[in-house]
Design goal:
binds NADP nicotinamide-adenine-dinucleotide phosphate
Amino acid sequence: MKYRKLGRTNFQVSDIAYGLWGMGGWTGSDDKQSLDSLQLSVNSGCNFFDTAWAYGEGKSDALLGETMARNKKRLYAASKIPPANDKWPALPKYKYRDVFSADHVLKYADQIRRKLRVDSIDLLQFHVWDDSWTNDPEFRSTVEKLKDGGWIRSFGLSLNRWEPENGVKALHTGLVDVVQVIYNIFDQAPEDELFPLCQALNIGVIARVPLDEGSLGGKMTLETRFPKSDWRSGYFGTENLANTIKRVDKLNKILPPGMTLPEMSLRFILSHPAVSTTIVGMRSPEHVRQNVAASDAGPLDAALLTELKRHRWDRKPQPWSD
Ligand SMILES: NC(=O)c1ccc[n+]([C@@H]2O[C@H](COP(=O)([O-])OP(=O)(O)OC[C@H]3O[C@@H](n4cnc5c(N)ncnc54)[C@H](OP(=O)(O)O)[C@@H]3O)[C@@H](O)[C@H]2O)c1
């Protein structure tokens, strides 16, 4: 496993890291298997874990807390404060105060600390963001309170899907140590403005949804269906599934011999120097083994990276995408 510095924090984090969303209630999630997979990842050198209160109302925070308590190694926990108005994604018409008031943020930060079984959270992120909120004085005072009071070690923003520029203003405040953004073979737009800014300001980058919610795992087909209760049933609905599978088929045609699609996808992400780590959603030990191996395999060669630029797919937020 290889490690990178997470921006201006002092954390040396594994470049392949763990996303716990699927453990909070997706179809097929099984707590025993989730805990076994988390432990296997720790044994394999994974030391950075992304969870959120919203993933099962503290459920995945608690699974992570249990894993950290069982292990003596230094493991880094990143969690997220849900929006108080329960609206996803953030929109400029919502007032900052109705989404992340100090009372709301401190209440959830405390609940998360308890679930993680820590006094200070390594990285606390706002789960949604709209840049029109940047100059609200309560934003600054709340983040300063969290840091000065030792509630958190670093602060981050998780940017809305397919809006990588909607966070750029906030990054200039000096309050944000780490940014979390969707970045994968399809969603390459963060390279345009966000990544150069993060490099200039030494802000850590967490690349999320590295496998496009599963399509870049290479096992989905036109016949794949998720139950209505599963978030992915909307994302991979009629509008998106066929278009996605068409693009996945094109990627399969350019796979180098011996390389799998998830391996190429993860190594594509790790090839960008602005990326500190990528959080892969994994629940099975088999996926942990496969994904962790991408770290040692390292960046892709220049010719393949050039070819993959052509598979960029710029999308706009849709009613089914959040
Ligand atoms: N707003 C936000 O802040 C936000 C939003 C989305 C995600 N996130 C974070 O980002 C993390 C990653 O995103 P994600 O989990 O939504 O999507 P993802 O990592 O792009 O994809 C997860 C899917 O890929 C499958 N998979 C994993 N490894 C595989 C492999 N080696 N081969 C084939 N399939 C594989 C998983 O299978 P199984 O179904 O079998 O497990 C799961 O269906 C989340 O867990 C969460 O921590 C944050």
